[in-house]
Amino acid sequence: MNMSSSPAVSSPLTAIPADIRNAQDYAALAPHFMPPSHYAYIAGGSGYGQSVAANVAAFEQWAIYPRLLRDVSHGHTRITLAGDDYAHPLLLAPVAFHKLAHANGEVDTARAADATETCMIASTQSSYPLEQTVARRGWFQLYLLPRREDTLHLLRRAEAAGYRAIVLTMDAPIQVANRRALAAQFQLPADCVNVNLRGYDLTPRFAGDGPGESRFFQGAMRGAPSWDDIRWIMDATRLPVWVKGVLHPDDAVALRDAGVSGIAVSNHGGRSLDGAPSGLDVLAAIRAAVGAQFPVLYDGGILSGSDAFKALALGADAVAIGRLQLYALSVAGALGVAHMLKLLREELEICMAMAGCATIGDIDSGTLLRQLRR
Ligand SMILES: Cc1cc2nc3c(=O)[nH]c(=O)nc-3n(C[C@H](O)[C@H](O)[C@H](O)COP(=O)(O)O)c2cc1C
What we know:
two-stranded antiparallel ribbon, binds flavin mononucleotide, TIM Barrel, about 375 residues, about 35% helix, alpha/beta
């Protein structure tokens, strides 16, 4: 990739590097385009990084059968999700603070999403206000704030801005240290603050610091989202409400029965409970538990079109890309993200065509062969 003589950090490019051939190439280039501590924060996971590693290893267990003599001349990647039609099943996962990767942050990412007809899920934790980061038919990822009146205000802003669905992230009630970021002395830069939450009271309701109390049981977990909160949000909005961070089939069934519009099977990119399985390893069981019709999104470790194909084959209706969007953003801003998404879509199309799948619906578990971990 001719980067050996590059400085440690350089300005984003205004053109696509000629030798980028695959979406994943952006991951290799990114360390050259952002400060090392930013890269450590983004690439790292919680604890000892077991779940980050699991996300990558999970894909290696599966091979895709090439199929011969299939007519795919009518092929396409279109899907319908939450009542909207999308050109392809590759979404942008909610990722905090895009300004860590590029000065234009989420604004550029949203432009790239529009240029490639991609559904972007904007994070609550954003370096630009949610009103400026809404992609066409984009969704909003909502973290419940300590006080309901503030959550409701944020929700109303998201509705007014035109977001088409709400994604409640449920799997991060406790902030677990990212050791790689700590070792690199990562700190949020002064110009990279969560502007969406300005003016809200973010003081936790429970500290868990009373006599004999635990910071976790009587602190963070007492303020964690509850079933009551999910019902309250569903009552408070007409938008479809998804829940992100599901890894157990029983939770998936309970959420379906509670009436949520869909779930995202995810271990938060290995950034929440270290030791949690990769979502890919539980995806087929979750699909079997919730039935064929219930909408399921997958994210975690997707770096190529064949990764996306495998997740679709194991039961996802669509997949979301996390870190790779920040890597592409750091290299070439909106252009980089759009190019990465174009490459990913082409890689998916190649897999589909050679596996004999003309449509996303044709991609099922019969397209995969389980192989031993390398
Ligand atoms: C730097 C970073 C910030 C993230 N911020 C959020 C967030 O604000 N909200 C959320 O629901 N998930 C967040 N995630 C998790 C992603 O939505 C997604 O689950 C994960 O990145 C997918 O794995 P991948 O990065 O391997 O593609 C974040 C992930 C990263 C890497």
